[in-house]
Amino acid sequence: MGSLFAGRLAERGNEVSLIEVSGVMIDAIEEKGLRMAGLFGEKAYSLPIAPADHYAEAFELLIVFTKGMYTTAAMEAAKHLLGPQTWVLTVQNGIGNVGAIEAFLARDRIVMGMTNWPSTLIEPGLITVPGEGEIKVWAANGQASARLEAISRALDEAGLNCKLDPGVEVSIWEKLAFNSALNSLAAVTGLTVGEMGDRQEARDIAFAIVDEVVAVAKARGLAVDANYVRQSLEHAFANHRQHQPSMLQDRLAGRRMEISTITGAVSRAGKTLNVATPVTTTFANLLTIFDNSGPVA
Question: Ketopantoate reductase N-terminal domain: which residues (predicted)?
Fold first, then answer.
């Protein structure tokens, strides 16, 4: 996703630098550029790329794309790039990322949001964008500002269909419900999206998780639309049949799964708000066991 945003912003003439920790990714982009195929055509962008400690000057805008369990480490590595005028944008999956960022930057300079843009990594340095998406953002402190509008406008002018949405937290939780259901179930069962949709037992579990996440969101005062999330699941079951959700991909590859800001976050929020989440909590516990057991044999 970071490659998509970087490429589109660079296309519009913005000065973009990439912060990356993977040596393989750094070498590929330094050699061939950041390459993009799909919706926007075949493109290649020559952009600076390096670990955070290779940069010295403060950034105007820092966009965080790490998985949630790495947010704090990423911000720690980049904290010397946060100047008095630096703003930070997060459109990461899950919840809790704003709080992690706030440990390094005042909340009034944090923009939170969600995106459903599809972006697939084909190989290091090459992504494909199979279709369209959108971005919704709003200030973490709830206040409109000229800087917030400028950030949204830059993303929109880059062709990323960005709009300001004071109710973006609802969209974040609706995506959280979707991800909690599909990612958790796929990672535990090993099923693709279509295979889950074909099994009534899997469907029942997925919708039970959705109902629990929605209940927690409503206890937080958010008007999350359960029917919208269910319809999104049905669309995925029918149209993304071969897709392996990211949490399953991570488990199969022996990588850490994004539990703490998705399923685990829902379980913790439920306990805080006295909302029962037995199915979600069970899956969070199972995933934590898997995460601590190494790659699938």
Answer: 1-137
User: Which parts of the chain fold into alpha helices (H)?
Assistant: 2-11, 23-32, 71-78, 97-102, 146-155, 168-189, 193-198, 200-219, 226-239, 246-253, 263-273, 278-291
User: Which single residue is written with the structure tokens 């535990």?
Assistant: 188
Domains, the chain, in order of start with CATH, read 2-166 (3.40.50.720), 169-291 (1.10.1040.10)
Please give the chain's pLDDT, 297 residues, in tens.
999 999 999 999 999 999 999 999 999 999 999 999 999 999 999 999 999 999 999 999 999 999 999 999 999 999 999 999 999 999 999 999 999 999 999 999 999 999 988 888 899 999 999 888 999 999 999 999 999 999 999 999 999 999 999 999 999 999 999 999 999 999 999 999 999 999 999 999 999 999 999 999 999 999 999 999 999 999 999 988 888 888 998 899 888 999 999 999 999 999 999 999 999 999 999 999 998 775 555
pTM of the model: 0.90
CA distance 136 to 138: 7
